[in-house]
Design brief:
This protein has 102 residues and is mainly alpha-helical. 21% of the residues lie in helices and 4% in strands. It has a two-stranded antiparallel sheet. It is extended.
Length: 102
Amino acid sequence: EYLCTRLTGDTAGSRAPLAVRADADDPVAIIGMTCRFPGGANSPEALWDLVASGKDVIGEFPTGRGWDLDGLFHPDPDHPGTSYANEGAFLYDADAFDAAFF
């Protein structure tokens, strides 16, 4: 309603949702989808399974990224150049990404 009001200026209030039908001749088709999230969720199904399970994917900072892990954490959030969190949700195999391939 907010967007309709902003776009058209019409403030008439709620409207019934429009029914949209797919065109049988539409050449667009979604044939696959992938993703990469912490916790090993590498497909939409795995992501939903992860969310449904309530699994905690928070872990230690990953090694192999060239980060100064010993100097990265500091409990004071105002300390410059550091993080006051010593855990996070990471893609632990992100350093194996083959950028040259793409």
